[in-house]
Amino acid sequence: MPQTLDAVAVRGWCALALDALGRDREAIDAINVYPVADGDTGTNLYLTMESAAQAVEAVFAAYPQPPVYAGVPPTTDVVRAMAHGALIGARGNSGTILAQLLRGMAEVVQDDGDLAAALDRAAAAAYLAVAHPVEGTVLTVATAAATAARTANGTPAAVAQAAYAGARDALDATPSQLAALGRAGVVDAGGRGLVTVLGALVQALSGEAPTARRDAPVPVPVLDCPAEAETAGPAFEVIYLLEADDAAVDRLRARLDRLGDSLVVVGGDGLWNVHVHVDDAGAAVEAGVEAGRPYRIRITHFEQQAAVEPPREQAQRAVVAVVPGEGLAGLCADAGATTVLARPGEPPASGELVEAIRRAHAREVVLLPNDAELRHTAAAAVEQARAEGIRVALIPTRAAVQGIAALAVHAPDRRFDEDVVAMTSAAGATRHAELAVAERQSWTMAGVCQAGDVLGLIDGDVVVIGQDLADTARTVLDRMLAAGGELVTLVLAADAPPELAALLESHVGKAHLAVDTVVYEGGRQGVPLLIGVE
Questions:
Q1: What is the number of other CB atoms lying within 10 angstroms of the CB of residue 365?
Q2: DSSP alpha helices (H): ranges in 151-188?
Q3: Separation between Cα atoms, residue 389 and residue 378, nearest integer Å
Q4: What is the full DSSP assignment across 88-138?
């Protein structure tokens, strides 16, 4: 295992932290009592780390592979991606603070790799991001980790181990520092999540998970402290990304501080993640509009709204499908599926898939991820949904055209296992291809491509490099149909040439007798053309 916090170590740390938070998520949720007892701290930390890990993997996937380059991107690119991914994917109070901690670390790691200094910068940055810092929270745990790291001598692994031990000791002390924790007899949930993340850092640098305590934790006494006010806190949690300059963000902080509490603003270089608890959610969003351009706005009501509308009767079976464009979302919805839109460059997180499974409101759910890169994300979502008592089957569809084929044979009146087998068989019998435009020079299975070349991929591998979209598509179709086929499915992006569908449909009709073609409008999607052959 690596001994320095280089690109490979950062990648391993993100993966290990995500895995550890996945295991600890429910336990962390269960002790979430501050600042709001909404039981989602573990989930928010997991989703934030998931976004960071996905951004890191995207950097590795985009970097040229051997023999052109070594395939390992610069550490600077990787730590920046980690920080940016956490920033844009931060969820809740705890996730927003974690994003700032990772950003603070990245600022130092990309310069000199000094882990102790990085942890120190992370703690300081987190304190500055919180409008009214409170001791006994994740901020206290982060500071203790940085302090302990400064006393360590030796390898980065030794520094990480010292930081982990310091954080763990500070976590044990949080109930005596914060009244809400003392009354509940728990440690701070965000702090526990940070200890989990630091434990993953130890493992990434040393190759061994940190040792557990041998002594049992001492029961926490109920503190004799004044009762908190009986008035309820703010009704809404508002989170959004904001494009704005520093001066506008300073004014925004002052305004949101007057509107509510739990204010955390993290980021920099023109991009910020804003988190606040307020009673007037509209005013919090309007403040963002005045400061710059807010987007990805999420407003959560802290109380359950079950009484607003009568509960729907739970269906027996449903299908949840990830789709790359609005056109396919409409097609799949018309076929009865609950859809999750995967925007270009923004793959859905496991939490979004779980929410879609819940939204389907069925006892049995078939999940179609429709993307090979979503296999781990989809598996995590299935595991969580099953823990909630939902029977879920994951069909490992690698492309949207395979999902269309599976949905076409879906029959909810069949036994669940029989339906899953039929859908899996239909997806497996569908070969998939896509046409993409190269963004840079790189090495492929078909040779070296240049920026602007049209790439024809069959089952995920580049097999054709061309200059014209229609010519390359015809070549791909001929290669696929050489092995046989009865039905060609074409899914065109909104910006594809308008005559492309007719050209390809005519080509199939003339060159491959008895093969039918069906065309769908995919809307805005990451590539100009998707192809399926059954």
A1: 25
A2: 156-177, 179-184
A3: 17
A4: HH--HHHHHHHHHHHHHHHHHHTTT--HHHHHHHHHHHHHHHBSS--TTSH
Instruction: Please report the sign of the dihedral spanned by the C-alpha atoms of residue 168, residue 172, residue 175, residue 178.
Output: negative
| Phi, psi (degrees; rounded to nearest 5) at 491 | -120, 110
Contact 401, 430 (CB under 8 A): yes
User: 343: which DSSP letter?
Assistant: B
SS3 assignment for 414-437: CCHHHHHHHHHHHHHCCEEEEEEE
- A 10 A CB-CB count for 111 gives 13
For residue 273, which of 289, 297, 308 has the smallest C-alpha distance? Answer: 297
Candidates 182, 163, 161; CA nearest to 228 is 182
Strand-pair category, 236-243 with 271-278: antiparallel
* Tokens describing residue 27: 């336990």
Predicted confidence (pLDDT) per residue in 311-326, tens digit: 556 788 999 999 988 8
pTM of the predicted model, to two decimals? 0.60
467-494 residues labelled b (16+ CB within 10 A) or e (exposed): eebbebbbbbbebbbeeebeebbbbbbe
Helix, strand or coil, per DSSP, at residue 486:
coil
- Cα(268)–Cα(420) distance, rounded to whole angstroms? 47
- Give the separation between CA 13 and CA 200, rounded to whole angstroms: 6
The tens digit of pLDDT for each residue in 211-249 reads: 755 333 433 333 333 333 334 578 888 989 899 999 999
